[in-house]
Design goal:
seven-stranded antiparallel sheet, alpha+beta, about 475 residues, Glutamine Phosphoribosylpyrophosphate, subunit 1, domain 1, Rossmann fold
């Protein structure tokens, strides 16, 4: 399961903005490993440097030295709309002269296809297959004269999830959709302002967290200061998987430390699904905190029975067939001395397709585990996500096709227990009605097309021969 990107922005006239953005993107690398990019402006022109690969592979001293100015935005990408190709890297720059902007986006626009067709009919050409370019051209298509008015026009027409940073030649804009699906926060460094998908990036560059960008809010930051503009919001639908899996444990969202929430999920699992066992293991790294929570509540000792290769990342070197057959063993190695003869509670964040979990359990058994009792922080995932999570189609989700006993048998566990939705909400400690729970309940916060194709815009773009719209 993958998330749909990390975004960052900074307005700091006396700082090395490219270097700040680089280290912030480094801290947000977990949100996307396909490509990375930075755009800057010096008040006269916008320049961008973006390529396929990890942040540390894309940038070097020479590249950063050329990204000068007083405003910068950055992006880490995982593709949920449009293919993983070089022409889809972000930030992207759209428009010409004074009517140009750079944009980086986290989320998924559910009505991107009809908007794309409408903009093509108006004369706009698309050079990528992403919904991000749809957003950018929708902003440019507005008849409003000021940028805030144009962004507001786009917000009122867009459906779906979007936390984004937009940069004109003299202003940084941070925008969050009215449902607040994806996180976005505001920080300060040496009297200047920064915005980030997660607060962990602020910590890395020495910035202080000020607050969350509110759902439906536009924040404008430039040499004159900071201004906030809010759209009317009727309900909120924050993605609950930010707490379960996506966000780093040292990030704070809605005032809650992610590590604490995950620890509480483990406590909840122990209360809902107790079992006699000898050791508790949290699958590293996303379920480590939950594993300790389960151990604390159950009084079963925690242990490190799986060692993770933390340098796996996303490699562009394909393993040969022999190594490919090893599968999950490339990622985890079990400790026989810890596991042999033990009844093990294995805690993980989620089971999506059910392809990895059986392999992990088989590893534990091969290393001598006597019993393996699976405990899962997320309730059964029965419905796909359409708001920026590349999860799976409905027929690929194991919980939509099998009962819990059938899943238990399929993954090869002695027992299987999922945290309930109520237990999950209790663990996080925030009101239920602020979350999107659609992947568990099927109750989406807005109408969605039930089988969306992430490459639909790519297919449409191949036939787009409309000349560039001049503004």
């Amino acid at each position: 399961m993958h998330e749909a990107c990390g975004v960052f922005g900074v307005c700091a006239p006396k700082e090395d903005i490219a270097r700040l953005t680089y280290f912030a993107l480094f801290a947000l690398q977990h949100r996307g490993q396909e490509s990375a990019g930075i755009a800057t402006t010096d008040g006269r022109k916008i320049q961008v440097y973006a390529k396929m690969g990890l942040v540390s592979h894309v940038f070097n001293e020479e590249a950063l030295s050329k990204l000068t100015g007083n405003i910068a935005i950055g992006h880490n990408r995982y593709s949920t709309r449009g293919s993983s190709r070089s022409y889809n890297v972000q930030p992207i720059v759209v428009g010409i002269n004074s009517n140009s902007l750079a944009i980086a986006h986290n989320g998924n626009i559910t009505n991107a296809e009809p908007l794309y067709k409408e903009l093509c009919e108006q004369g706009y050409t698309f050079h990528t297959s992403t919904d991000t370019e749809v957003i950018a051209n929708l902003i440019l298509s507005s008849t409003q004269k000021d940028w805030v008015g144009r962004i507001r026009y786009a917000i009122r027409r867009l459906q779906g999830a979007y936390s984004m940073v937009i940069m004109t030649k003299d202003t940084l804009y941070a925008v969050r959709d009215p449902l607040g699906v994806r996180p976005l926060c505001l920080g300060a460094i040496n009297g200047n302002r920064v915005v980030s998908s997660e607060s962990c990036a602020l910590d890395h560059i020495g910035a202080d967290l000020i607050r969350e960008i509110e759902p439906g809010e536009i924040v404008a930051i430039n040499a004159d200061g900071i201004k906030s503009y809010r759209e009317e919001v009727t309900k909120q639908a924050s993605c609950i998987f930010e707490y379960i899996y996506f966000s780093r444990p040292d990030s704070i969202i809605n005032g809650q430390l992610i590590h604490t929430a995950r620890h509480n999920m483990g406590i909840g699992l122990a209360e809902e699904h107790p079992v006699d066992a000898d050791i508790v293991i949290g699958v590293p790294d996303s379920a480590t905190a939950a594993g300790f929570g389960y151990a604390l509540r159950s009084s079963i000792p925690p242990g490190e029975g799986l060692i993770k290769n933390r340098y796996m990342g996303r490699t562009f070197i394909e393993p040969d067939q022999r190594l490919r057959d090893l599968g999950v063993k490339l990622k985890f190695n079990p400790l026989r001395s810890v596991l042999e003869g033990k009844r093990v509670v294995l805690v993980d964040d989620s089971i999506v397709r059910g392809t990895t979990t059986p392999k992990v359990i088989k590893l534990l058994r091969k290393a001598g585990a006597k019993e393996v009792h699976m405990r899962v922080c997320a309730p059964p995932i029965r419905y796909p996500c359409f708001f920026g999570v590349d999860m799976a189609t409905h027929r690929e989700l194991i919980a939509s096709q099998k009962t819990i006993p059938q899943i238990r048998d399929y993954i090869g566990a002695d027992s299987l227990g999922y945290l309930s939705v109520d237990g999950l909400i209790k663990a996080i400690g925030l009101p239920r009605d602020i979350f999107c729970l659609a992947c568990f309940t099927g109750e989406y916060p807005m109408p969605v097309q039930l089988e969306m194709d992430k490459l639909a815009l790519e297919t449409a773009a191949t036939g787009n021969k409309v000349p560039v719209k001049q503004q």
